[in-house]
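quick one, 220 residues, struct below
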Amino acid sequence: MGESPFNVTTLKGKFIVFDGPDGSGKSTQIARFVQWCRNEGLNVKEVREPGGTSIGEQIRDILLATKNTEMTLPCEMLLYMASRAQLMEQEVIPALANGDIVVADRFVSATLVYQGYAGGLPVRWIEQVGEVALQEKWPDLTVIFDVDCESASKRLNPLLDRMEMKGDSFHQKVREGFLKLAENEPEKYAVIDSTASIEAVEGAVHTLVQERFCHPITSK
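---
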C-alpha cells in the first residue's frame, strides 16, 4: 500500500474491532490490516470471538455446534459474554496495558446485532452484561463491513455453523442491525462497503483508521 502519510505510532494501545454479517470478508481484511500494522513496526494482539482463550474456544464449540438447536437466546447471549469476559481478562486488557494494538474478529457489536436487533433480546440487557464482561473497556472503533445478503451467501462455506444456518430473513435483520449501530453511534462505529475489491476495501480501512487516530506527517 506504500508508505503511510500518517504517524501510526498513535495507534498504540488502541482497541479496534472488525465486524459485519457472515460473508462480509472481514477475516480477509483483518489478516491484511494486522500485517500492515506489523510492517509499520507496531505490536499487534489479534483475537477472535467467540474464543481466543482455552476456555473461550470450548465455549465457541458449544455455541456453533449445529446439534444445539434447543439453546435459548438468553443462554446464547450469556455464553458469548462469558467467552468475552475471559478474553478481556486474559488477553485484551494486558495487551492494551502493554501498548499493543488489539484487533478483534467480532466483539460485543456482534452480540448487540445477532442476539439483540436480529434475535429479539432487549439491547439494554446486552449492554448491561457487556459492562461486566468488558470491565468498561469498550473498543475505540468498530469497523462494520457491509454486504448485501445475496453477495454474502456466495462467500460462505457450504458447511454452515449454527449461526450461519438461521436463514435469509434473520441475516437481513443482522445487516440492518449493524447499519443501525453505526447510524446511532458514528463516533464508535464506521461502515465500509465490502462488495468492492479486496484491495479497495483494504485501502478504505487504512484511510478510516488513519483519519480517526493518526496525525499526518508534515514536512519540515
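The chain has a mean pLDDT of 90.
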